[in-house]
Amino acid sequence: MLDYSKLSILVVDDQTLVRSLLVPLLKGLGFAADHVHQSVDGLSALRSLNVRAVDVVLCDISMLPLNGLDLLKELRMGRPLATPSNVPFIFLSGHAERHNVELAAGLDADGFVVKPPKPVDIEKALGFALTRPRPAPDPFRYAHIATGSEYDRSHGFRLGEIGPALVLADDACFERARPQSLSDVGQDALLAEDLVSPTGRLLLRRGKRITAAQLAVLRERPERFGVAELVIEDEDAPA
């Protein structure tokens, strides 16, 4: 049986009433009061997870400016640096349409509880999420899943307000491109050529800046990606 007293959870919902109902429910399951954290929307949750890791996230879908699906995509792509990208993540939503459920599954959500939630449903979802095998960290796997939101359309590979952002047109011209060993590539390097694995899998398109999480995965998992060097734009070289 899970000992919730040793675990921390982040509740993300823009409705104060929902959060006020969930907090005592979670305490009743055994979560310590100071281990139940709250965020009023996806963007504030992203900021929180960038500085403090939790063991599980319980999140609404319909929020602005960053909805729950976008938050999960950011997490799975390794953007909050303090939180593991494969952290258990459960949706709590009144929007259980097929499209949302399929997107959640594609982003490796661990559960989908329909509002208004029953305590037994929350407990069952938490038990499953916290005991099932975790998906392998792979920030490239989720990059091309479109959530359909304005945030996703306008930000793409960007880090929102947390970090660097640059998306260039596909026909961008790179005049100072040069190959560089993966071990020497720095965070935010601008890709001058598509990043493709030896098996032909497109990992990242040209014109994108590579993130710290993506670099870490490429370096730590050479057997999976087989990438030894990147072709980057030398932005410091004379034009």
From TrEMBL:
Xref: InterPro entries: CheY-like_superfamily (IPR011006), Sig_transdc_resp-reg_receiver (IPR001789), WalR-like (IPR039420)
CDD domains: REC
Residue numbers carrying 4-aspartylphosphate: D60
An example Gene Ontology biological process: regulation of DNA-templated transcription
Domain Response regulatory: 8-130
Matches recorded under Pfam families: Response_reg (PF00072)
UniProt keyword annotations, A-Z: DNA-binding, Phosphoprotein, Transcription, Transcription regulation, Two-component regulatory system
Matches recorded under PROSITE patterns: RESPONSE_REGULATORY
GO cellular component, one term: cytosol
SMART domains the UniProt entry points to: REC
Example GO molecular function: transcription cis-regulatory region binding
PANTHER family: REGULATOR OF RPOS, TWO-COMPONENT RESPONSE REGULATOR ORR33
Protein known as: Response regulator
Organism: Crenobacter cavernae
